[in-house]
Amino acid sequence: MKIECILCNQVFEPDKMQVKKIAKHPHKIQICSSCKERITKKVEERRETSEHPSEPVASNPNYT
Q1: Does residue 11 come out as left (phi exceeding 0), alpha (psi in the -120 to 50 range) or beta?
Q2: What is the predicted pLDDT for the residue at 37?
Q3: Structure letter (DSSP) for residue 3
Q4: What Rg do the C-alpha atoms of the chain give, in angstroms?
């Protein structure tokens, strides 16, 4: 099975878990591993530099 990444249009071979997910939910968007790594890296960087905590607002002691 070959799938095309929605972000970079690269055709890739999905792993076993992706094949199962695609079989159960064919309407879901799939991305290649390189795009997933790139997005994950950017999200982690954004979380590290964020001024806001990633905790829910109710548990924030500064919440009024």
Answers
A1: beta
A2: 94
A3: E
A4: 17
Residue 32's CB: how many other CB atoms inside 10 A? 20
- Report the domain count for the chain: 1
Q: What is the pLDDT of residues 1-45, one digit of tens each?
A: 888 888 999 999 988 988 898 889 888 888 888 999 999 999 998
Cα separation values, 42 from 35, 47, 48, 50, 60, Å: 11, 9, 10, 12, 25
Report if residue 51 sits inside a domain. no
Helix count and strand count (H, E) for the chain: 2, 2
- 35: domain range? 3-45
pLDDT of residue 50: 74
Helix (H) or strand (E) holding 12: strand 11-12
Instruction: Answer whether residue 48 shows pLDDT above 90.
Output: no
